[in-house]
Amino acid sequence: MSVVVVMVVESVAPAAAIGPSQFFWWGLLLLFFIPYGLISSELGTTYAGNGGLYDWVRRAFGPRWGGRLAWIYWINYPFWMAGLAVLFMQVAQRIFQWHLPLWGTLLGQLLFIWTVVLVGNQPVSESKWIMDLAAIAKILIIFSLGGLGIYVALTKGVANRFTLQTMLPQASLSSLSNISVIIFNFLGFEVVTTMASHMDNPQKQVRQAIIFGGLLSALFYLLAAFGMGVAIPTAKLSASSGLLDGFVLLVGKLNGFVVFIGGCFLYTLVSEMVSWALGINYVADYAGKNHDLPTVFAKEDTKGMPIGAGYLNGLLASSAVLLAPLFPNPDIFWSFFSLNIIALLLSYTMLFPAFHKLRRIDSQRQRPFRVPGGRLMINLMTWIPEVLLILAIIFSVLPTSFSTAAITAKLPLWIGIVLAVIIGELVVRWTESAHQSPALVTHPKSNLLFARSTHHPL
Known about the structure:
The protein contains 20 helices and two strands. The chain is mainly α.
C-alpha cells in the first residue's frame, strides 16, 4: 500500500515535462523527503490510530486548527478524483480507439468516480488484493518504460540532451514552479499511518512501510523519468497524455503491448484513488466525530466504514466533471490536478510545526521510533522542509510571466484555492459554534479518539 499510495503513475508525465533538470530537483528535494519520512514514522508510531495528520495537528494546535487541516486535506481529494476521471476517459478513448460524444465521456467519468467511491467504502482487509495488483501493475509500467528507454537510448539515441547544463534548473518562475510536482510525488506516507489500527505490529510495520516504500518509490520514479526523457522532447510532452505518448514513441506504434500497458495504467488510476480514499475518509470521519467538521463526515456503515466522507467525495467530484465543459480549457486534467496539488501541499504545511510542538509539549510520551538528533537537528528537520513547502506553493500559484495570458491561465487556480479556504473556514467555525469543543477520550478497543458530547454515546 505504501508503494501504491506514494507512487502516483499519472504524475510521471508532469514531472518529466520539467525536462532533464527534474533530476536536480529530485536530488535537492531529498531535503524534504528524508525529514518527511522520518517525522511521519515518529508521529505514526507514537500516536497510532486512524486520525493521522489531523490527529497530530489537533494535538499540537487545538480543535480549530485540526478542523482546518481536516477540511483542506479532504477537499483536495474530490478534485484529484475528478482530474483522474478526465484522464481515465482520455486514455481509454486513445487506446481503445473510441470516439465518444460528450455525454458518453461524462458517463464514463461518472462511472469511474462512483466505482472508486463504492470500493473505497469497503474495509481495507477486503480491498487489500486491489492494492497488491496495483503495486504489480505500477511496477510493470515503470520497468517497461525504463527498460524501453534504456534500449532506445543505446540503439537510437535520446530525445533530450542529458548534460550538466541541461540538468541544472533555469532561474525562471516556470522552472521554480516545478518544485511542487516533485514534492507531490513524495507525499502519502501519513495515509499509511492511518491504517495502523489494522496492522499486527504498527510500531514496527509503519516504519518499515515508510522506509522501504519510500526507497522503492524514489527508484521507480527516477527510472520512469529517464524513460520519458528518452522518448519525448520536453517541449512536446503533455502532462495528461505524456505517459501513453512515451510508450507509443518508444515502441513505434499503438500495438497490443501499448494497449495492455494502457489497461494497466487505467487500473492504477482506480486503485490509487481507492488507496487514498481509505486514508482521506478516515481523517474526515475522525474530524466529524470530534465535531471539528460537520457530523455528515462521521456517518459510518455497519462495518464502521466512513461512508459519509466517501459519498461527499463522489458528489463533489461528479459536480466538478459535469460543470467542467462549461468552462473551456485545453487541459481539464491539469486544471484539477493543479488544484489538488496546491490544496494537498497547504495541508502539509501544518505537519512539521506540529511535530516540533509535540516534541516540546509531549516530550515524556514513549516514542517507539524517534527522529535522531539533538535540538539543532530537530530544528533543521522541521524548518528546511517547511520552507521548501511554502516556496513550492508560492512558485506554483505565481504566473510563469506577467503577461495577460499567463495571469489569466492562473485565475481558475487562484479562485479555486481562495474559495476552498474561505468555505473551509466558514464550515469549521459553524461546526465549532454548533458543537462546543469536545473533550477527547480513548476508545478502549480500537485505541481511536472520539468526541465526548451529548451527541455521541461515548
